[in-house]
Design a protein that fits this description.
The chain is α/β, with parallel strands linked by helices. Strands 1, 2, 3, 4, 5, 6, 7, 8 and 9 form a nine-stranded mixed beta sheet that branches.
Length: 238
């Protein structure tokens, strides 16, 4: 049944995207679905303040940045191990941006938990702690967040296919205290969304940059879409 459901929503999304491509002004009514601006959205460099600013201008409710640490333990915005000879952006710059945009949330995509305890005091300094949540976490990462950043909400990162026991993923997220599942858009299904919502969990998908998959994710009812093209997502959903 899951495979048939996926095929149905994929086909429906294809038809709607085709109609949009020929000029029909369609928008998908999705209620409370949020849009997260990928750390490198709108053609700007990953983890740059310019990308955050552009994402919000394009209609994103949430910005994303990658959290890493230098060898000396300083928090920086970096997807990969920081090159300490290069230009390093501090989370303080992102937190300053958030302090000036109180309606915007931030997805802290955790790439290392080694010095994670340094994040909350910095966020508190700017008064943005309640605007943060965390992704990029498996069971070990969640354990570190619970210990070092108590009170910050977090998602469980998962991967799934049509053979995955979705109920077990839901139970695991509940056992770990996660607010939801975070996964590649290709792995999401209407059944997953339905089971998560029944359990009080959210479903967040990444990274959705083209019309057809954006529509498909809207149709199956995901709670958040992470994208490099927040302007496109905002033009397709409401």
């Amino acid at each position: 049944m899951t495979a048939l459901s996926i095929a149905f929503y994929r086909a429906l999304a294809w038809i709607l995207s085709l109609l949009i491509s020929v000029g029909l002004p369609l928008r998908i009514n999705v209620g409370s679905t949020t849009v997260t601006a990928h750390s490198g959205c709108m053609g700007f460099a990953d983890n740059s303040i310019e990308a955050m600013e552009a994402g919000v201008r394009a209609g994103a409710n949430i910005i994303e940045f990658d959290l890493n640490f230098t060898r000396s333990g300083e928090p920086v915005l970096s997807h990969d191990e920081p090159n300490e000879d290069g230009v390093l952006v501090s989370p303080a710059e992102a937190f300053c941006f958030l302090s000036e945009n109180k309606s915007v949330l931030a997805n802290v995509d955790v790439k290392s938990t080694l010095y994670l305890e340094k994040l909350v005091p910095l966020a508190e300094k700017f008064g943005v702690t309640e605007q943060l949540f965390m992704t990029g976490l498996d069971e070990n990462g969640i354990a570190a967040v619970k210990e070092k950043c108590p009170g910050i909400p977090y998602y469980l990162n998962v991967y799934a296919d049509i053979h995955t026991d979705v109920r077990s993923l839901v139970d695991k997220a509940l056992d770990l205290g996660a607010v939801g599942l975070n996964l590649p858009w290709e792995n999401a299904s209407r059944r997953m969304v339905r089971l998560c919502h029944h359990a009080g969990l959210l479903v967040s998908v990444w990274t959705v940059d083209e019309t057809r998959p954006i529509i498909e994710m809207a149709l199956i009812g995901v709670d958040n879409i992470t994208t490099r093209c927040p302007d496109l997502v905002s033009s397709l959903i409401r």
